[in-house]
Amino acid sequence: MFGTTLEWTNRVLNFSGARACIWLLALQYVVYLRNYLASPALGGQCPLFALTGQTQDISHLTHFYFNQPVYYRIDDNSRSFPSSGTELKGHWVGFGEHVGDLMTWKILTEDDDIIYRSSVRPASSGFDMNRRLESVEGETGPSSLPVFVRSRHLDSCSDQSEFVMPTINFEDLIGRTFLLPPNPKGERHRARVTKPLIETSSDEPNLIQDLKFILDVGDGISKDIVTYNELLEYIQKEEERTLDPEQLFRYTRIIGHQGPLNQDDPHYKGSNYNVLVEWDTGETTYEPLSIIAKDDPVTCAVYAKENNLLDEKGWRRFKRFVKTHKRLIRNVKRNKIKHSRHNIKYMFGYQIPRDYEEAMELDRKNGNTKWKEAIDLELKQIDDYQTFKDIGKAELDQKGQVKNAPEGYKKIRVHLVFAVKHDGRHKARLVADGHLTRNNTEGAYSGVVSLRSLRIVMFLSELNTLKLWGADIGNAYLEAFTEEKIFIVAGPEFGDRKGHILIISKALYGLRTSGARWHDRLFDVMRDMGFTPSKNDPDIWMRPSKDGKVYEYIAVYVDDLAIAGIDPAEICQTLRDKFKFRLKGDGPLEYHLGCGYWRDPDGTLVADPKKYIEKMMEWYESEFGERPRKMKTPLEPGDHPEIDDSPECDEKDQSRYLTMIGQLQWLVALGRFDVFCATMTMSKFRPAPKEGHISRLKRMYGYVLETRTAAIRFHTAEPNYDDIEVPQHDWMRTVYGNVKETIPQDIPEPRGKPVVTTSYVDANLYHDVVTGKAVTAVLHLLNQTPVDWYSKKQGTVETATFGSEFSAARTATDQIVDLRNTLRYLGVPIKGRSYLFGDNKSVVTNATIPTSVLSKRHHALSYHRVREAVASGFLLFHWIDGKKNPADILSKHWTFVSVYPMLKSLLLWRGETKDIKDIPAVGDKDKAN
Q1: How far is C-alpha 705 from the chain's CA centre?
Q2: What is the per-residue pLDDT across 194-203, written as a single tens digit (0 to 9) for each?
Q3: Residues 6+ apart with CB under 8 A from 748
Q4: Alpha carbon distance 779, 886 (integer Å)
Q5: 4 compared with 693, residue with greater pLDDT
Q6: How far apart are CA 381 and CA 376, in angstroms?
Q7: What is the average pLDDT across 617-627?
Q8: Are residues 809 and 877 in contact, defined by beta-carbon separation less than 8 angstroms?
Q9: CA dist., res. 899 & res. 920, Å (int)
Q10: Angle between helices 5-16 and 23-34 (to 10 degrees)
Q11: How far apart are CA 697 and CA 644, in angstroms?
């Protein structure tokens, strides 16, 4: 049974004549059926046989077909008078998989309810027909007209007896564009849907099979007619190609021209010449020379020189670009970056306008007002915030300067940015040209909460049984007033206000200081609600709960809020009612900053970047034509990419390399620290990657795909370290004396449950064989939850493991001090000392025994930093077996077998970390010592 499940579901809906709104029942039917049928992927075995090893009974699969009209038995009331019958009519829609015996069926009643019955028979039209349930001769039921629905995910069912293939509304198809297959000359043209064409071939008009569409191919070069189904296939391929919403169509060269042309010529487009442009998709179109020359004069100059056109009228203007060969080459290189910003852009098959005039032109071509409606909606929302103050008509002098400009105000411009969402919605955003204003010396940006602080807030929410909500403040910048004195002269998009002077009073998107003004506005709101910013991270706001037992927190990432509180709904309502914020998506946190949040069956909160990983894989497939091959490790154990001698990547692969590194770095920030070391290693080669380097990134993508279920779980139970013996040493007679931990004096009063911090440290000597530098790796946990991780090459070259491990221990100590102070500034009680585990016994001994002496003077800073922390009593440095040190995941390129027990506990296991017997975090004395 070939094809995807969704394709077969569409076929079932098609051939059965089922209503579009029961697509989910059809999907369940197909999934059930495919579990009983042979699968090529399983070598011809059916999935259930592969799972259980038992031959399956398929006799029940052949009794009915999907959506078959049936009679099902009801309670026998034939003794009553008059009898209402013993059967009712419905449709067979599947199997009673978990109800009754094998011959129990799923029935869709005429009231659209799902019931299960064993006594079912086909609704026959012959002798066995139930005449009380069917229309007799001469009777007619309600007429059924075809309906083109927007989506097969319908909210309700209409009573349509005629089959309607669930698809896009045909009117929404007008204006869609897509690439046609190459013609015999190898050229590809873009086609635009202009209007539907109904060819009535039956007694009932307007059926789907009769519907065709007229296409405008290559900007009027020719016309074509395609069927409805052919059109849907083209559009589906176009959407699969448009996985990146920011993709541009860039032209690669000019391959021909038309002209000279006059206004009476059918090919005239406003210029005496048209040039035949080849786009990077393979499409070729004729574009006006005046438009291409304005955007990319260098490419035009190259074409003119190659075709001896520089002395022709209309082409002479390009002579200045080719005065010398060196100058031409320099201009070509410079223009590769510049010209792409004005190229034609498509999103999901729709051409994206570059300005208001082009948007109106596209509406005229498409015969609709979608872009106009999007612009009007954006301007209405902006006006709702009273963003502009209209002071009347602008008076212009001969030079175009505004004569009645408000004193002290600077004129700038605004422009519209357009986009199309995946569901076809057209969007517009008004943005100010903030680069025209002066630089602000007092700060112009709004800070964001660090992801480490965000994880700590979520951990504290789980620890203190707070509710965790998310919310998005709509049009956040427009909630604040701008301090810049600027105005615009309204363009045609402003309708009746065209030509008026509009003073910008709100922090419009694009202004240099809009971020800072929004931050100031939110600061005032948070203060008014009783929240104060944490001194360690000012984008975490906190206040004592009403009972005073815990703190409530709000973590702010520009306009995204993560709220941990006793009653987050009350906080959101206050933001709405008192401060008039327009919140969107407020409720229990489900998705935030690229990470999904859900709970295990035992109620444990899980931070899962699976959606982000899926976007990574979609991008990979769009770039390389296939999904990555699954791998068990990010890189080969002991791999040294710094000595790779393969050829350098071409320009396209260099761009891919930068994107892949950026995606992996954000994935690490979201919690996948198992790829941190590999990502850190490969980031070094961003300036000039080689083919071998991008092959390694492909392997890393394969590993991420293989382990896509890995996630951070917020386990709040304290680890048990009672079996670890605390050394009793007298440090009074050392250089450290009676040293104590330095505790800030301005920390808030501790509230809530206490926290135990645990850290693991490791170093990998000679990680980079070219520079000789080692890698420091540190993993920090609060109770049993990983909250921070670190993997970085050391700044100096060490000649022995002892030096690199001591340097790593110093880094870990500094980070532990910072973590403890972060918790204190969040009002968190810290339970006793912090635990640091390392696998180098010489370093642990040298750092924890007062009589140990410094053997190499260049280790003095690391030596004294760690020993002073141990002497102060807030740090317990303990030795563990290197095979059981989870910091190894961050320090080297490992084998799957060597780290799986630790990975399983930290990222893959659903139970408590303490239940895993193979890692030292449980405080097992035999493993910790």
Answers
A1: 16
A2: 777 755 444 4
A3: 542, 551, 825, 826, 827
A4: 8
A5: 693
A6: 9
A7: 91
A8: yes
A9: 13
A10: 120
A11: 14
Position 743 scores a pLDDT of 94
User: Per residue in 397-431, pLDDT tens?
Assistant: 888 889 999 999 999 999 999 988 766 789 899 99
Tokens (6 digits) for 896: 């799957």
d(CA 232, CA 226): 10
Task: Give ∠ CA 222-225-231 in degrees, rounded to 5.
Answer: 115
DSSP string, 199-256: ---SSS-S-GGGEEEEEEETTTTEEEEEEHHHHHHHHHHHHHH--STT-B--EEEEEE
Amino acid at 153: H
User: What does the mean pLDDT of the chain come to?
Assistant: 83
Residue 287: which residues within 8 A CB-CB, separation 6 or more?
269, 274, 275, 277
Q: What is the DSSP letter of 911?
A: S
| 766-785: pLDDT as tens digits | 999 999 999 999 999 999 99
E strand or H helix at 257, and its extent?
strand 251-258
The residue among 179, 264, 285 whose CA lies nearest residue 274 is 285
577 and 569 Cβ atoms separated by less than 8 Å:
no
Please state whether beta strands 834-838 and 875-879 pair in parallel, antiparallel, or not at all (unpaired). Answer: parallel
pLDDT score recorded for residue 62? 81
pLDDT at residue 49 greater than cutoff 90: no
Q: Phi-psi region for residue 651, left (φ > 0), alpha (ψ -120 to 50) or beta?
A: alpha
pLDDT of 538 > 90? The answer is yes
Ranges of H-type helices in 271-369: 289-295, 297-306, 325-338, 356-366
The 3-class secondary structure across 563-621, one letter per residue, is: EEECCHHHHHHHHHHCCCCCEEEEEECCEECCEEEEECCCCCEEEECHHHHHHHHHHHH
Question: Which pTM value belongs to this model?
Answer: 0.65
Angstrom CA distances, 785 to 145, 458, 460, 668, 758, stand at 59, 11, 11, 16, 9
pLDDT at 868: 96
| Residues 321, 325, 330: CA angle, nearest 5 degrees | 65
Q: Which two structure tokens, joined as six digits, stand for 715?
A: 């386990």
Task: Please report the DSSP string for 417-483 in residue order.
Answer: EEEE-TTS-EEEEEEE-GGGSPPPTT-----B--HHHHHHHHHHHHHTT-EEEEEEETTGGGGSB--
Examine residue 297 and say whether the peptide bond preceding it is cis (omega within 30 degrees of 0): no
Distance CA 564, CA 550 (A): 11
Task: Compare 98 and 737 and report the one with higher pLDDT.
Answer: 737
Neighbours of 576 (CB within 10 A): 14
Distance CA 224, CA 231 (A): 11
Query: Could you tell me the two tokens for 245?
Result: 């919403």
pLDDT at 328: 55
Q: Find the angle CA(319)-CA(321)-CA(326) to the nearest 5 degrees.
A: 120
**Cα first-last separation, the chain:** 58
Which tokens in the block code for residue 78?
Answer: 């034939």
CA distances to 253, 769, 846 from 774, rounded to whole Å, are: 48, 9, 20
Name every residue whose Cβ is closer than 8 Å to that of residue 435 and which is 6 or more positions away in sequence. none
Rounded to whole angstroms, the Cα distance separating 814 from 812 reads 5
β-strand partners of 95 = 105
Q: Is 709 in contact with 908 (CB distance < 8 Å)?
A: yes
Alpha carbons 786 and 625: distance in angstroms, whole number: 36
Give the span between the Cα atoms of 167 and 229, in whole angstroms: 10
Residue 416 DSSP SS3: strand
179 class by beta-carbon count within 10 Å (0-12 exposed, 13-18 middle, 19+ buried): buried
